Amino acid sequence: MKALVTGATGFLGNHLCRELREIGYAVHISNTQTASLSDIKNLDVYKDIDFDIIFHLAAVTKAGDWCVHNPGTQWIENQIINTNILKFWKECQPSARMVCIGTSCSYDPTLPLEEGYYERGTPDLDLYYYAQTKRMLLTGLRALQKQHGLEWLYVIPSTLYGPGFKDDDNHFIFDLVRKISDGKYKDSPVTLWGTGEQKRELINVNDFVNILLDLTDRKNEVINIGRGKEYSIKEYARKICELVGFDFYDIKYDTTKFSGVQSKCLNIEKLKGIFPKLKFTPLEEGLKEIIDWNNNGKKIFTNTV
Hints:
Layout: E1 2-6, H1 11-22, E2 26-30, E3 53-56, H2 66-69, H3 71-92, E4 97-101, H4 128-148, E5 152-157, E6 159-161, H5 172-185, E7 191-193, E8 199-204, H6 205-214, E9 221-225, E10 230-232, H7 233-244, E11 252-254, H8 269-274, H9 283-295
Parallel strand pairs: 1-2, 1-3, 3-4, 4-5, 5-9, 6-8, 7-11
Antiparallel strand pairs: 8-10
Helix pairs in contact: 1-6, 3-4, 5-7, 5-9, 7-9
């Protein structure tokens, strides 16, 4: 079995490539150094390989308020990489199953976060342009299915967490771990963005990868992958403080900073209908793992790409 993974050296890409190799796939990669999607000609190195599956993870985005200040960059660069991988798929790999990663940002926060509403309404305005490129990616999959009979799967994850995150990855949970750990071990002040009342859902990256690989026989579907349960930023911070040994009441909150939507929890009824006995890594266990990764020299995970 042969797989092409775009965005292969990102957080999710590292974990996915590792698991694919462990189950026997020959893994080929695309990133900014190898077969970059910025120019479709870079994919020529793979045009004579018959892939069984293509995982399209690559996206130009960052956590925090980066989206707010870079809407044009996100729109142009994501449209380019999405169009190039879809064109490569259609012209060179029509027998491969295309698996694409969407974003919960594409949901209108005033509507149910379930698959039938993914393209309805208006995404949060701070994330609007990135969200629309992900909606356009789904539109592209459907267009190529309709005209050429190509098969695809489009999955929408909640926020992923686990070991192996990079120093510049400031997704909220990694940012919390870094700030609270620095408060404990470096006596640094701990200030979080927003009121701390905004709620977020997490799924352990290994849980996500396992579910994703179990779904690859599904075709032409949109599926949410999450835990279906969310906690406030304050609740996550309290759990991390308990594990690190930092006084939760020493945390301060800066309400002038970007804090995003107030709630973001995926409806996973469709996923539970496919897998009635879903099991997830306990939150405390997952948090301890990323705290250990952050504080113990980052020796428990090595890049396998």
